[in-house]
Amino acid sequence: MGRTLLLTGRPGIGKTTVIKEVVRALGPQAGGFYTEEIRGPGGRKGFRLVTLEGEEAVLSHVDFRGPCYPRVGRYGVDVETFSRVGVGALRRAMQARRIVIIDEIGKMELFSGPFKETVLQAVSGPYTVVATIMAKPHPWADALKQLPTVTLWELTLENRDRMQEEVRRWVREG
Question: Quick one: which H or E segment has residue 157?
Fold first, then answer.
């Protein structure tokens, strides 16, 4: 049976930083994706998805408008591209029996039905999953946090400096 570690915490606390450090330590043992901010004049313009295989795609952007882009705040979300690139990376990680990295399980990502299905397959299968998840209440995310194979850790200002080592230890002890 697999096991899952979910890291939660307020936006900007350092969840993605922890994930990137863990990915660096795991090297080719890990598969999946992380997200990065897209910055431009005037601040953040959107979010980019980066697979651990090096593929990149724009997840959301202030310039994405129209009915095919559901909105989260001021960002339009490219659900189709996310489903293709992000979900593809997770499925390849599972097929290769790698440690599955998911950054993040949040409002934007949860617009994708294939993403939710793949996350459930990873969490309920024989995989080791390390993911970040939104802290705000959300029915689907809250149900995921309650699954018996899930360990939930909150990242805070007080513990974030030691969290990278804690996550690496959790992975090793599995």
Answer: none
User: Hey, what amino acid is at 22?
Assistant: V
> Any idea what DSSP says for residue 24?
H
Q: What is the pTM of this model?
A: 0.95
Number of domains making up the chain: 1
> Cβ(170)–Cβ(8) under 8 Å?
no
Query: Residue 146 is part of a domain; what is its CATH number?
Result: 3.40.50.300
Q: What is the dihedral of CA 9, 50, 144, 25, to 10 degrees?
A: -70
**DSSP bridge partners of 53:** none
Number of residues that make up the chain: 174
Per-residue pLDDT, 174: 74
pLDDT digits (tens, 9 = 90+) for 48-74: 999 999 999 999 999 999 999 999 999
For residues 32 and 95, the answer to whether their CB atoms sit within 8 Å is no
List the domain range (segments joined by +) for residue 114.
3-172
The tokens for 102 are 């998911």
Residues with Cβ < 8 Å from 80, sequence gap 6 or more? 68
Residue-by-residue DSSP string for 59-70: EEETT--STTS-
